[in-house]
Amino acid sequence: MRLVNSIIHLAHGLNLKVVAEGVETKEETQLLKLLRCEQAQGYLYSKPLTAEAFAAKL
């Protein structure tokens, strides 16, 4: 938890946005929001897709 918080804080100090990878649960999403992580990706949102499958979802 301290490590994740430190990385997010460091990125914000450098005026960078933070993307969390590998998010699998709603609890992880809630924690990342509390830590002010701007974006997340992972199986919670979608399994990996081919370019064609992704285009079809759009």
Detailed description of the structure:
α2 (26-34) links the parallel β1 (19-21) and β2. The chain has one domain. The protein has 58 residues and is mainly α. It has a two-stranded parallel ribbon. The protein is built from three helices and two strands. The longest helix is centred in the N-terminal third of the chain and has 12 residues, at 2-13. It starts with a helix and ends with a helix.
What topology does this entry show?
Elements (H helix, E strand, L loop, with lengths): L1 H12 L5 E3 L4 H9 L4 E3 L9 H7 L1
Parallel strand pairs: 1-2
Which key features would you list for this structure?
48% helix; 3 helices; 58 residues
* Rg value: 13 Å
| Total beta strand runs | 2
The portion of residues assigned to helices is 40-55%
Characterize the largest beta sheet: strand count, sense, and whether it forms a barrel: 2 strands, parallel
- Tally of individual helices: 3
Poorly predicted spans: none
Secondary-structure-derived class: mainly alpha
| Chain-averaged pLDDT | 95
Concise account of the structure shown:
By secondary structure, the protein is mainly alpha-helical. 48% of the residues lie in helices and 10% in strands.
